[in-house]
Design a protein that fits this description.
Uridine Diphospho-n-acetylenolpyruvylglucosamine Reductase, domain 3, globular, five-stranded antiparallel β-sheet, alpha+beta, Uridine Diphospho-n-acetylenolpyruvylglucosamine Reductase, domain 1, Uridine Diphospho-n-acetylenolpyruvylglucosamine Reductase, domain 2, 20 strands, 3 domains, four-stranded mixed β-sheet, binds uridine-diphosphate-2(N-acetylglucosaminyl) butyric acid
Length: 348
């Protein structure tokens, strides 16, 4: 009953928002934990590497993956607990992120409104600790469950176990390719102050008194800002920000600020400073640049766009050129944000 259908030579181009041409030797869609275990056992028996896809909105795929691509479509959103202050909502890893946001907004729950309209699935969200407009996932994260790819056991993670930091978690490092997330539980506030610290958001909502502001109004404002800057992957293939905002020492920041008084930066704690990578890219002339079907978005230089639907290898080559150029100009190495599955030696 729970045996997933394993398909051969499957097209992954429609399954990644960068729309790179990609095919997998084997592919399975899994809608429940039993099917996921079956698929993982199959790969283990065949000695095949596994690639896990959610919404495909934060990956750079290789032209050919000689293994099993598993797409997690585990559904379900439910309220699992409640106390005086919080409501705890659990969602299946395969739920579309925005559907979960909508579920919470309909119940006037606070916490996900700033993260409205982020492409992708619930299961992928903790991997890069998604964030936008002053909020990161770890501020509302309660716990998650995952299946160990080798032992097939169910594991539970609380927030410290996930080792969250800026666009980062243990699932991008020590546990990369080691577990598959199956469900995530969020801790959402019934009331309290909404986060409008991001300047353009604050501005957009300034006419509404803080005590009357609803999560829905914050969400609507976030959606309007996102739409004005970020391209819709359905129209222009992209994976959101392609680089992280680099965090540098106070000394490095000071010396850059002397050379570039307009430098855009934010305090990052512990005496360190986060630089706006979009600003560095714009100064270096990459905003709106295009070459052979790939480029940097004209309204937001941090977003790599792939209107030519070029292959992942080329996308990474283009990104590496940008990384070298920014390093030569500013002495700052940009780190890629999406996870690349292109064979080793070819990644930047
Ligand atoms: N800027 C420029 N030119 C550009 C882009 C940005 O000068 O082309 C400068 C502007 O001065 C702006 C500053 O950079 O004030 C920051 O830009 P923005 O507010 O658009 O945000 P970001 O730092 O470029 C980050 C996230 C986005 C998130 C926005 C809003 C990262 C890597 N990216 O971008 O997340 O939506 O903040 O919170 O942290 C994603 O991760 O995929 C993503 C889209």
């Amino acid at each position: 009953m729970n045996t997933p259908r394993i398909l051969a030579d499957h097209d992954l181009q429609p399954l990644n928002t960068l729309a790179v041409p990609a095919r997998a030797a084997r592919y399975a869609q899994v809608g429940d934990e039993a099917s996921l275990r079956e698929a993982l056992s199959f790969a283990r028996a065949e000695g095949m590497p596994v690639l896990v896809l959610g919404g495909g909105s934060n990956v750079v795929l290789p032209a050919r993956f000689e293994g099993l691509a598993i797409q997690v479509t585990i559904k379900g959103v439910e309220i699992v607990a409640e106390d005086g202050e919080f409501v705890y909502v659990r969602a299946g890893a395969g739920e579309v992120w925005q559907d979960l946001v909508e579920f919470t907004l309909q119940r006037n729950l606070q916490g996900l409104e700033n993260l409205s309209l982020i492409p992708g699935t619930v299961g992928a969200a903790p991997i890069q600790n998604i964030g936008a407009y002053g909020v990161e996932l770890d501020t509302v994260f309660e716990s998650l469950t995952a299946i160990d790819r080798q032992s097939l056991e169910t594991l539970a993670f609380d927030a410290p176990a996930c080792e969250f930091s800026y666009r980062d978690s243990i699932f991008k490092h020590r546990l990369r390719d080691a577990v598959v997330i199956t469900a995530v539980t969020f801790r959402l506030r019934k009331k309290g102050e909404l986060n409008t610290s991001y300047a353009p958001l604050h501005e957009a909502l300034s006419a509404i008194p803080a005590n009357e502001l609803t999560p829905r109004q914050v969400s609507d404002a976030v959606i309007a800002i996102r739409r004005s800057k970020l391209p819709d992957p359905a129209e222009i293939p992209n994976a959101g920000s392609f680089f992280k905002n680099p965090i540098v020492s106070a000394d490095k920041h000071e010396s850059l600020k002397r050379d570039y008084p307009q430098l855009v930066s934010f305090p990052a704690g512990a005496g360190r400073v986060k630089l706006a990578a979009g600003w560095l890219l714009e100064q270096a002339g990459w905003r709106g640049h295009r070459q052979d079907g790939v480029g940097m978005h004209a309204a937001q230089a941090l977003v790599l766009v792939n209107p030519g639907r070029r292959e992942g290898e080329y996308v990474l080559e283009y990104a590496a050129r940008i990384q070298r150029d920014v390093y030569e100009r500013f002495g700052v190495m940009l780190e890629r944000e999406p996870v690349a599955y292109v064979p080793q030696g070819e990644t930047a």
